[in-house]
């Protein structure tokens, strides 16, 4: 009897996980653009956490803009091919190919294509988080720059919180609020020209 009940519980849990993953996929695959406010917390091993915040704009295909209010002026922007990271405090602008970058913001690029959890990740675990659900996803292989990704999902299938654990024992956490679906986002938002006097750094992986 115990084994039968355990199988029933596991089956129900599997269906619930499948429903959550499908709901998130449908939510993001149906939109062409997205805007949210974010708070970002970065923790390196042995260092105090760094907390930053701002607004995130996403548009398919492959465009993203992280405009920081804290620290003011910081910018991370992708036109679908290149990624720019502008740091006003260092007076530098780094440029990297999107497919080559190891920046922790890059995993969010999956929202800009056709989201498919089974394709993008390996094993999954589902945990209840109050009314929300938390999906713990492991990478498909050890060549990726992270060891685990956690998605906290609202009942409406929006991602409220995202945590990325790096292979170097670092952790990047994002909390998203105020989601706007399909806002008009012009091409100019995703183009970047470094200001005069800024040091340009070409990053190759």
Short description:
This protein is an alpha+beta fold.
Number of helices, counting only DSSP H or I runs of 4 residues or more: 2
Taking all residues together, what is the mean pLDDT?
84
H-E order: HEEEEEEHEEEEEE
Largest sheet: 12 strands, mixed
Note the gap between the termini.
56 Å
The portion of residues forming beta strands comes to 35-45%
Order of adjacent strands in the largest pleated sheet: 7-8-9-10-11-1-2-3-4-5-6-12
SSE arrangement:
Layout: H1 2-29, E1 33-43, E2 50-59, E3 63-70, E4 75-79, E5 82-87, E6 92-97, H2 117-120, E7 124-129, E8 132-137, E9 146-153, E10 159-166, E11 171-181, E12 199-202
Parallel strand pairs: 6-12
Antiparallel strand pairs: 1-2, 1-11, 2-3, 3-4, 4-5, 5-6, 7-8, 8-9, 9-10, 10-11
Write up this protein.
The structure is a single chain. This protein has 205 residues and is an alpha+beta fold. 16% of the residues lie in helices and 43% in strands. It has helices at residues 2-29, 117-120; strands at residues 33-43, 50-59, 63-70, 75-79, 82-87, 92-97, 124-129, 132-137, 146-153, 159-166, 171-181, 199-202. A 12-stranded mixed beta sheet has the order 7-8-9-10-11-1-2-3-4-5-6-12, with helices on one face. It starts with a helix and ends with a strand. The model is unreliable at 1-12 (pLDDT under 50).
What key attributes describe this structure?
single chain; 205 residues; alpha+beta; twelve-stranded mixed β-sheet; 2 helices; globular; disordered N terminus
């Amino acid at each position: 009897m115990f084994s039968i009940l355990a199988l029933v519980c596991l089956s129900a849990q599997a269906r619930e996980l499948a429903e959550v993953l499908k709901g998130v996929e449908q939510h993001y695959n149906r939109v062409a653009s997205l805007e949210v406010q974010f708070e970002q917390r970065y923790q390196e091993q042995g260092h105090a956490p760094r907390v930053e915040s701002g607004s995130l704009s996403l548009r398919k295909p492959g465009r993203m803009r992280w405009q920081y209010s804290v620290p003011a002026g910081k910018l991370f922007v992708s036109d679908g091919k290149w990624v720019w990271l502008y740091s006003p405090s260092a007076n530098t602008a780094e440029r990297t190919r999107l497919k080559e970058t190891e920046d922790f913001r890059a995993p969010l690029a999956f929202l800009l294509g056709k989201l498919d959890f089974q394709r993008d990740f390996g094993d999954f675990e589902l945990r209840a988080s109050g009314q929300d659900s938390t999906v713990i996803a492991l990478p498909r292989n050890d060549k990726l720059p992270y060891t685990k990704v956690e998605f906290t999902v609202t009942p409406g299938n929006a991602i409220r919180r995202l945590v990325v654990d790096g292979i170097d024992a670092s952790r990047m956490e994002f909390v998203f609020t105020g989601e706007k679906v399909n806002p008009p986002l012009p091409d100019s938002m995703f183009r970047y020209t470094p200001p005069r006097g800024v040091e340009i750094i070409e990053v190759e992986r």
